[in-house]
Specification:
Elements lengths: L1 H20 L17 E6 L2 E6 L5 E10 L7 E11 L5 E11 L9 H10 L13 E6 L5 E3 L9 E11 L4 E16 L6 E16 L1
């Protein structure tokens, strides 16, 4: 019996020593990522247009236009979001600007300025290139781009709702739904004449990235 106990003890000791030599895999905790999604629905020149993420190659993308000036002049940043496809010509793009900041302090507006700007600009006026407000562009199936005008004689409006700021390891985002009605314009390069299309009940869900 004594020998049996000694043998059992030795076997257990061997098992424990073998287990202690095994390197256990360390699985890192999941990194939280902001869920970004996009969608557009509207009536363009009397025809319903719907752009759906991951259908026909459509995805969303956010960029920004920086106009950096040396101090003491202030710099400005305008934010873009577009839904476009690698296989289809139609796209919709909106621009909202501008956040003003001191470029000698940071290379772009900080998170507090980014959040304050979007929270304060829920019903922006229309502006050329979005330098001081809102602009929308639409590209048709023939590759012709039509753009809203700051000085349009036609009624136009834009409203941002559902604004939600979220951040992850990649960046900071202002998620939104934008509702707008406006005419968009295109000038013929040959005749120099202007033509227009009406976008009615446009609803664009997307995000701006700081």
């Amino acid at each position: 019996m004594k020998n049996y106990k000694l043998g059992l003890f030795a076997a257990l000791a061997l098992i424990f020593s073998l287990e202690s030599c095994i390197e256990h895999e360390v699985i890192p905790a999941p990194v939280p990522m902001v869920e970004l999604s996009c969608h557009f629905l509207g009536t363009v020149n009397g025809t319903v247009l719907e752009l759906t993420e991951n259908v026909s190659g459509y995805t969303g993308k956010s960029t920004k236009n920086l106009n950096i000036l040396p101090a003491p002049a202030v710099s400005s940043a305008a934010y873009n979001f577009e839904m476009s496809s690698t296989t289809t010509m139609n796209f919709v793009k909106v621009v909202l600007g501008s956040v003003l900041w001191d470029a000698s302090v940071s290379i772009s507006p900080d998170l507090a300025a980014f959040n304050s700007f979007h929270a304060a600009n829920t019903t922006p006026s229309y502006s050329s290139a979005g330098t001081s407000g809102f602009e929308v562009s639409y590209r048709d199936g023939n590759g012709v781009t039509w753009t809203s005008k700051q000085n349009s004689v036609n009624a136009q409006n834009a409203t941002f709702t559902g604004i939600l700021q979220e951040s992850d390891t990649i960046g900071d985002y202002s998620k939104f739904t934008c509702n707008f009605n406006c005419y968009v314009y295109h000038q013929d390069a040959g005749t120099l004449l202007w033509d227009s299309l009406y976008i009615e009940n446009g609803i664009l869900k997307g995000w701006f990235q700081r």
